[in-house]
Design a protein that fits this description.
By secondary structure, the protein is an alpha/beta fold. The chain has one domain: Alpha-Beta Barrel (TIM Barrel), CATH 3.20.20.140. The chain is 43% helix and 11% strand. The strands form two sheets. Strands 4-5-6-7-8-9 form a six-stranded parallel beta sheet. Strands 1-2-3 form a three-stranded parallel beta sheet. The longest helix has 15 residues.
Length: 295
């Protein structure tokens, strides 16, 4: 076991947890992941700053790394940036999950003809979580082409990790307004707002307070890297603490510009949170949401 693995394991072991559940990790077809890394390397327009990839290794090594950290369940968040990608990404992700029992079977969607059918197919074959990337996809989540697909996911109770905040750079349809409209049409949707909705933190806390099915993931928020440009308002900490039953840990592994232990400590070292809050965020909330066994 590496020194890094030992450090990570100590964090969750000190909380008497069986491990970590990470709702925001990326596994993709190699050619897609390579292109994502190239975009980060070039500090593309949606990135906007230097962004080194800490865990740039092959797929087998990345799986070994997560398991070495004691991550007992994770996702393979995939997302299209154009039409005619989502269905084949879903096929790849289904195969990956079948070969990777600790991965929560993941799917994605895009506003295009056929989206309702391939989302239905994904749900029927056991998809546990869906990724929607409003920023990269450049689409309005209330696009009529998506309406029936959202209904399928709401009826099935499948959570959706949705990047809809305007960080690290705003997109054409990012921000809270489209999500308010989406929830008005589909109030039963289980949304997991990625990155705590940065930088519109307060607005997405509002949505979480108003809708029982809305959750927040901590991905990259609260870390020194993000605090440099999009700090979480200290005035909102009481609300974040109060919503501890609907906050989930996410890391953005492997695409983070710091170590995994740093991602964990950005959560566990928050002022004013107790061990029950930490256990909920690092493990128990996700275990309940995804009906995972205790150990």
């Amino acid at each position: 076991m590496t020194d890094e693995s030992t450090s990570v394991r100590r964090i969750w072991a000190d909380l008497d947890l069986p491990g970590v559940i990470d709702v925001h990790t990326h596994f993709m077809p190699k050619r897609v992941m390579d292109k994502v890394w190239q975009y980060f390397d070039a500090a593309g327009p949606l990135v906007g700053r230097t962004w080194p990839i800490t865990y740039r290794t092959d797929e087998a090594r990345r799986l070994q790394t997560l398991r070495g950290f004691g991550v007992r369940a994770f996702t393979s968040l995939i997302y299209p940036h154009k039409p005619d990608m989502a269905a084949w990404l879903n096929q790849w992700a289904a195969g990956f999950a079948a070969a990777t029992p600790d991965c929560l079977a993941t799917a994605t969607l895009f506003p295009e003809p056929g989206v309702t059918q391939y989302v239905t197919d994904a749900v029927e074959r056991g998809t546990r979580v869906v990724k929607a990337h409003v920023q990269v996809g450049g689409y309005d989540p209330t696009d009529p082409l998506l309406d029936e697909a959202w209904g399928v996911l709401a009826d099935a109770g499948v959570p959706v990790v949705i990047h809809c905040g305007s960080g690290p750079q705003p997109g054409a349809h990012t921000g809270p307004a489209p999500i308010r409209a989406l929830l008005a049409r589909h109030p039963a949707l289980r949304l997991i707002i990625a990155h705590l909705g940065m930088p519109e933190y307060a607005d997405f806390l509002d949505l979480c307070e108003r809708h029982d099915g809305v959750h927040l993931d901590t991905t990259m928020a609260l870390t020194p890297f993000t605090e440099e440009t999009m700090p979480f308002p200290r005035s909102e900490m009481p609300r974040l603490r109060a919503l501890g039953h609907r906050v989930l840990f996410g890391s953005d592994f492997p695409n983070i510009p710091y170590g995994y232990a740093d991602a964990l400590r950005s959560v566990t070292d928050l002022d004013g949170v107790d061990d029950a809050w930490r256990r909920n965020v690092l493990h128990d909330n996700a275990a309940r949401l995804f009906a995972l066994s205790p150990s």
